[in-house]
Amino acid sequence: MDSDDENNLFRQAMADAKPLKTDRIYNAAHKPAPTARFTRQDQQAVLAESLQCDTAQLANTDEMQFCRAGLKSPFFKKLKRGVYTVEEELDLHGLTVVEARGAIKEFLREAKYYRWSCVRIIHGKGKRSWQGMPVLRPQVSRWLRLCDQVLAFCSALPRDGGSGAVYVLLSN
Prior knowledge:
By secondary structure, the chain is of the alpha+beta class. The protein has a domain at 55-170: Ribosomal Protein S8, Chain: A, domain 1 (2-Layer Sandwich), CATH 3.30.1370.110. The chain contains six helices and five strands, in the order H-H-H-E-H-E-H-E-H-E-E. It has a five-stranded mixed β-sheet, sandwiched between helices. Helix 5 (97-114) packs across helix 6. The longest helix is centred in the middle third of the chain and has 18 residues, at 97-114. The termini are far apart. 23% of the residues are buried.
């Protein structure tokens, strides 16, 4: 379509239009300042999660373990003995808590897609953290407990990272 046709179409469409009676421009009322709605929701979610698990207790123990109700004992015992083949691993060394959480979410999403049943997450022992206390270990434990896909987890054997890593048994 050439520009003459477009101009004719425009004129036809505007044939019934009437000019405004004033040249004055009206300013709309001032809009209220935007609020960070999602930040507030995120903060509330973090608070709710923190109330579900005692992280202080987790930070003081070397061993981490969790078994979801309904998982039969032999499966958990095999996990603790390192019998299951680790299909993939995630190393969280050097990540902040926020970065680690995102990495775990993505890793578990990937694990579900590929139908991995046993993975290892390396969170470190916290010896090089700010106060020499583990930062990621209690968070990893809390996040894994909140994930329905996680059937059980426990600290890895010394050859696989010991208290600086966990074996995670997943549902398919």
